[in-house]
Amino acid sequence: MGYHAWFQCFNDDCQEKYQLNEIIYNCRKCGSLLEVKHDMNALKDKSPQEWKSLFDSRQRTIDFPYGSSIWGKKEWVLPEIENRNIVSLFEGHTNLFRAERFGNTIGVEDVWVKMCGNSHTGSFKDLGMTVLVSQVKQMISEGKPIKAIACASTGDTSAALSAYCAAAGIPSIVLLPKNKVSTAQLVQPLANGAKVFSLETDFDGCMALVQKLCGEESIYLANSMNSLRIEGQKTISVEICQQFGWDVPEFVIIPGGNLGNVSALGSGFMMMKELGLINRLPRIVLAQAAQANPLYLSYIKRFKEFHPVQAKKTLASAIQIGNPVSVYKAIKALQQFDGIVEQATEEELANAAALGDVCGMFNCPHTGVALAVLQKMVNRGIIKKADRVVVISTAHGLKFSGFKTAYHQQAIEGIDCKYANLPIEMPPDLHSVLEALNKIK
Question: Domain range holding 392?
Fold first, then answer.
């Protein structure tokens, strides 16, 4: 095919290049993060319609690996990897939920929720992990001395890493902040056989330690500062447009913690536009919890400066990050997409998640952050009634049953749980049930 991809320094003043099979995470020349670049001239050998037809023809097939929504776009992801080294669980193809009732409740006619939690491990992290673990398997086959893959995590990254490593037969190492992830998120890597270290620190402390650990060549880093992850996650943008018949929504709202997801979203849309599959870009809205809001604080100062914060405890535990490693990539993407950064308080995110549930969803608290920010954008008139809006739901609500239970028991301190709903206990007879129903009416 002649398609080619490589690592390139993110710093526009440097742009040093490296091969994808090198064990490298930062530019050796200037220290900046890397990004995966593609030979776009080679990709232009197909017309926009030819790419659309190719991707559509692979949709949900059982032809390995192309039935995966990520590997169905292999030429745009890792064009040179050997198919025998691809580790895929046929990820992607998550549904777009038409949130009609929720939209009508808040005053928007065309709201959709991209249910990325309807995946193998229950989060969007699967999209990037299939790419990273596949490339590691390729590198091992070429003789690279990699013995394990490691990550710091607030829950979902560790689940995805451990599952894909288990499928590949590669050992995985997970560093988690003690007592800061849900029970369901903790048990996932344990079940998949990962070596799990529960550390008495926060995510930022785990992130600092895993970078030191991966200074050893035999342990490969799986966090989103490794741009292989971004290559998988960027296909969310392509999949959204594909599901809309190759149309583009006006707004995409995504919750952000370590912020790799923002640059991934931007990368997918930019690639489609450059290759002619779409003719305009959406506005990207990044939603942060007010308890962990370093990018929001930078945004309100027009990104003139950025300062890490000490993240405070938030119900949205997966984005409880005060020093995101992908911040400058995120800022660049937001500037390209006329982006907005907004925050949600604990009460706002909890009630937005619950309102979504009342309207047919089952939201993780991070999706609650995005839904709360959507409400704010509508109330300010930034998002209009007829705008098409896609909210990225990053994880499945079942991972956060403790949050759900505490909400409906009204046991979350300092929060007025507006939509709390508990079972009604009574004797097992029809009269009692009818009497209770009459009272409810």
Answer: 96-122+230-408
